[in-house]
Design a protein that fits this description.
Layout: E1 11-12, E2 17-18, E3 23-28, H1 39-49, E4 53-61, E5 69-76, E6 80-81, E7 84-85, E8 100-106, E9 109-114, E10 120-125, E11 130-133, E12 138-143, E13 149-156, H2 164-168, E14 174-178, E15 184-188, H3 197-204
Antiparallel strand pairs: 1-2, 3-4, 4-5, 5-13, 6-7, 8-11, 8-13, 9-10, 9-12, 14-15
Protein backbone atom coordinates (compact mmCIF):
# COMPACT_ATOMS: atom_id res chain seq x y z
CA UNK A 1 0.00 0.00 0.00
CA UNK A 2 1.32 3.43 -0.93
CA UNK A 3 1.05 5.82 1.99
CA UNK A 4 0.01 9.44 1.60
CA UNK A 5 2.77 11.98 1.99
CA UNK A 6 2.62 14.29 5.02
CA UNK A 7 1.65 17.84 4.15
CA UNK A 8 2.40 21.17 5.79
CA UNK A 9 0.00 24.12 5.74
CA UNK A 10 0.59 27.74 6.68
CA UNK A 11 -2.32 29.85 7.90
CA UNK A 12 -2.31 33.59 7.31
CA UNK A 13 -4.36 35.00 10.15
CA UNK A 14 -4.14 38.45 8.54
CA UNK A 15 -5.83 37.31 5.32
CA UNK A 16 -7.73 34.34 6.78
CA UNK A 17 -6.39 32.01 4.08
CA UNK A 18 -4.90 28.52 4.14
CA UNK A 19 -1.68 28.17 2.15
CA UNK A 20 -1.05 25.02 0.10
CA UNK A 21 -4.81 24.49 -0.21
CA UNK A 22 -6.65 22.86 -3.12
CA UNK A 23 -10.11 24.36 -2.60
CA UNK A 24 -11.39 27.95 -2.37
CA UNK A 25 -14.85 29.46 -2.49
CA UNK A 26 -16.37 32.81 -1.61
CA UNK A 27 -19.85 33.93 -0.61
CA UNK A 28 -20.74 37.51 -1.46
CA UNK A 29 -23.34 39.48 0.46
CA UNK A 30 -25.73 39.12 -2.48
CA UNK A 31 -25.50 35.30 -2.13
CA UNK A 32 -27.06 35.35 1.33
CA UNK A 33 -30.67 36.23 0.50
CA UNK A 34 -33.19 34.64 2.84
CA UNK A 35 -30.88 34.29 5.84
CA UNK A 36 -31.83 37.49 7.67
CA UNK A 37 -35.08 38.56 9.31
CA UNK A 38 -34.88 42.21 8.21
CA UNK A 39 -35.33 41.81 4.45
CA UNK A 40 -35.47 45.57 3.83
CA UNK A 41 -32.13 46.07 5.59
CA UNK A 42 -30.65 43.21 3.58
CA UNK A 43 -31.89 44.72 0.31
CA UNK A 44 -30.30 48.06 1.21
CA UNK A 45 -27.02 46.35 2.08
CA UNK A 46 -26.98 44.42 -1.20
CA UNK A 47 -27.72 47.59 -3.17
CA UNK A 48 -24.70 49.28 -1.58
CA UNK A 49 -22.26 46.39 -1.07
CA UNK A 50 -23.71 43.31 -2.72
CA UNK A 51 -20.50 42.21 -4.47
CA UNK A 52 -18.35 42.41 -1.34
CA UNK A 53 -17.20 39.10 0.11
CA UNK A 54 -19.15 38.08 3.22
CA UNK A 55 -17.03 35.03 3.95
CA UNK A 56 -14.60 32.73 2.20
CA UNK A 57 -13.20 29.25 2.73
CA UNK A 58 -9.88 27.77 1.69
CA UNK A 59 -9.50 24.03 2.20
CA UNK A 60 -7.56 20.85 1.52
CA UNK A 61 -9.03 17.38 1.02
CA UNK A 62 -6.77 14.36 1.55
CA UNK A 63 -9.26 12.01 -0.14
CA UNK A 64 -12.86 10.87 0.07
CA UNK A 65 -12.79 8.10 2.70
CA UNK A 66 -14.04 8.43 6.27
CA UNK A 67 -10.43 7.98 7.38
CA UNK A 68 -9.40 11.04 5.34
CA UNK A 69 -9.86 14.59 6.55
CA UNK A 70 -11.00 17.80 4.94
CA UNK A 71 -9.42 20.75 6.69
CA UNK A 72 -9.44 24.43 6.02
CA UNK A 73 -9.89 28.00 7.18
CA UNK A 74 -12.98 30.20 7.17
CA UNK A 75 -12.70 33.99 7.19
CA UNK A 76 -15.86 36.03 7.84
CA UNK A 77 -16.29 39.79 7.61
CA UNK A 78 -17.79 41.71 10.55
CA UNK A 79 -21.12 43.47 10.12
CA UNK A 80 -24.84 43.38 10.71
CA UNK A 81 -28.07 43.26 8.74
CA UNK A 82 -30.32 45.42 10.84
CA UNK A 83 -29.51 44.17 14.36
CA UNK A 84 -28.55 40.67 13.17
CA UNK A 85 -24.88 39.77 12.95
CA UNK A 86 -23.24 38.43 9.79
CA UNK A 87 -23.43 34.64 9.66
CA UNK A 88 -22.71 31.67 7.42
CA UNK A 89 -25.40 29.63 5.70
CA UNK A 90 -24.87 26.73 8.08
CA UNK A 91 -25.41 23.02 7.51
CA UNK A 92 -25.69 19.55 8.94
CA UNK A 93 -23.47 16.83 7.58
CA UNK A 94 -25.18 14.69 4.95
CA UNK A 95 -23.78 11.73 6.89
CA UNK A 96 -25.18 12.99 10.15
CA UNK A 97 -22.94 10.91 12.40
CA UNK A 98 -19.83 12.83 11.36
CA UNK A 99 -18.40 15.44 13.78
CA UNK A 100 -16.44 18.63 13.10
CA UNK A 101 -13.80 20.61 14.99
CA UNK A 102 -13.31 24.39 14.84
CA UNK A 103 -10.25 26.22 16.14
CA UNK A 104 -10.56 29.99 16.64
CA UNK A 105 -7.58 32.00 15.40
CA UNK A 106 -8.75 35.62 15.25
CA UNK A 107 -11.83 37.67 16.02
CA UNK A 108 -14.84 37.02 18.17
CA UNK A 109 -17.68 34.76 17.11
CA UNK A 110 -20.20 32.12 17.98
CA UNK A 111 -20.77 28.55 16.91
CA UNK A 112 -24.56 28.31 16.77
CA UNK A 113 -25.80 24.73 16.98
CA UNK A 114 -29.21 23.07 16.86
CA UNK A 115 -30.20 19.44 17.30
CA UNK A 116 -32.70 17.87 14.89
CA UNK A 117 -35.46 18.20 17.52
CA UNK A 118 -34.68 21.87 18.16
CA UNK A 119 -32.36 22.03 21.16
CA UNK A 120 -30.07 25.07 20.97
CA UNK A 121 -26.42 25.31 21.99
CA UNK A 122 -24.22 28.39 21.48
CA UNK A 123 -20.45 28.34 22.03
CA UNK A 124 -18.42 31.55 22.13
CA UNK A 125 -15.30 31.43 19.96
CA UNK A 126 -12.14 33.48 20.16
CA UNK A 127 -8.41 33.06 19.52
CA UNK A 128 -6.98 29.76 20.78
CA UNK A 129 -10.43 28.28 21.47
CA UNK A 130 -11.65 24.93 20.14
CA UNK A 131 -15.27 23.93 19.54
CA UNK A 132 -16.17 20.28 19.04
CA UNK A 133 -19.41 19.95 17.05
CA UNK A 134 -20.72 16.44 17.80
CA UNK A 135 -22.48 14.27 15.23
CA UNK A 136 -26.05 15.18 14.23
CA UNK A 137 -25.84 18.88 15.17
CA UNK A 138 -26.73 21.60 12.66
CA UNK A 139 -24.15 24.37 12.93
CA UNK A 140 -23.28 27.81 11.62
CA UNK A 141 -20.76 30.53 12.48
CA UNK A 142 -21.71 34.05 13.56
CA UNK A 143 -19.28 37.00 13.71
CA UNK A 144 -20.20 39.07 16.77
CA UNK A 145 -16.98 41.12 16.76
CA UNK A 146 -15.69 44.19 14.97
CA UNK A 147 -12.91 42.40 13.04
CA UNK A 148 -12.64 39.36 10.79
CA UNK A 149 -13.54 36.04 12.38
CA UNK A 150 -10.94 33.44 11.35
CA UNK A 151 -11.35 29.78 12.26
CA UNK A 152 -9.66 26.55 11.20
CA UNK A 153 -11.90 23.48 10.77
CA UNK A 154 -11.55 19.74 10.14
CA UNK A 155 -14.04 16.94 9.51
CA UNK A 156 -14.16 13.45 7.93
CA UNK A 157 -13.87 13.68 4.17
CA UNK A 158 -17.03 11.65 3.44
CA UNK A 159 -19.28 13.87 5.61
CA UNK A 160 -20.98 15.93 2.92
CA UNK A 161 -23.20 18.92 3.71
CA UNK A 162 -26.95 19.45 3.74
CA UNK A 163 -27.45 23.22 3.53
CA UNK A 164 -31.21 22.96 2.95
CA UNK A 165 -32.08 21.69 6.42
CA UNK A 166 -32.11 25.24 7.82
CA UNK A 167 -34.22 26.66 5.01
CA UNK A 168 -36.74 23.79 5.30
CA UNK A 169 -37.37 24.73 8.93
CA UNK A 170 -37.70 28.48 8.33
CA UNK A 171 -34.23 29.17 9.75
CA UNK A 172 -32.67 28.13 13.02
CA UNK A 173 -34.72 28.31 16.20
CA UNK A 174 -33.02 31.48 17.48
CA UNK A 175 -31.49 34.54 15.85
CA UNK A 176 -28.38 36.31 17.13
CA UNK A 177 -28.77 40.09 17.53
CA UNK A 178 -26.74 43.03 18.77
CA UNK A 179 -28.17 44.14 22.12
CA UNK A 180 -27.17 47.77 21.47
CA UNK A 181 -24.44 47.68 24.13
CA UNK A 182 -21.76 45.78 22.26
CA UNK A 183 -22.97 42.36 23.31
CA UNK A 184 -25.01 39.68 21.58
CA UNK A 185 -28.37 38.25 22.54
CA UNK A 186 -30.49 35.42 21.20
CA UNK A 187 -34.17 35.85 20.39
CA UNK A 188 -36.75 33.31 19.19
CA UNK A 189 -37.20 33.01 15.44
CA UNK A 190 -40.96 33.23 14.83
CA UNK A 191 -40.59 31.58 11.41
CA UNK A 192 -38.98 28.41 12.81
CA UNK A 193 -40.89 25.19 12.22
CA UNK A 194 -40.22 21.98 14.18
CA UNK A 195 -39.01 19.05 12.10
CA UNK A 196 -41.32 16.08 11.78
CA UNK A 197 -40.70 12.81 13.59
CA UNK A 198 -40.00 11.19 10.23
CA UNK A 199 -37.40 13.81 9.30
CA UNK A 200 -35.70 13.54 12.69
CA UNK A 201 -35.61 9.75 12.43
CA UNK A 202 -34.15 10.00 8.94
CA UNK A 203 -31.40 12.36 10.12
CA UNK A 204 -30.54 10.09 13.03
CA UNK A 205 -30.70 6.96 10.89
CA UNK A 206 -33.49 5.48 13.01
CA UNK A 207 -36.85 3.96 12.23
CA UNK A 208 -39.70 6.39 12.79
Amino acid sequence: MRLQEPRLFQVSVETGLLGNSDGHYQKRLSDLAGLYADEAAFDRLVAERGQEIAYEVTSYSAGSRVSDLILGVTRMEPGRVGDEYFLTRGHIHARGDRPEVYYGQAGRGLMQMESPDGEVRIVEMGPQSICYVPPFWIHRSVNVGDTDLVMMFAYPADSGQDYGIIERSGGLRVRILDDGQGRWRQVPNPDWRPRSKDEIADILGESA
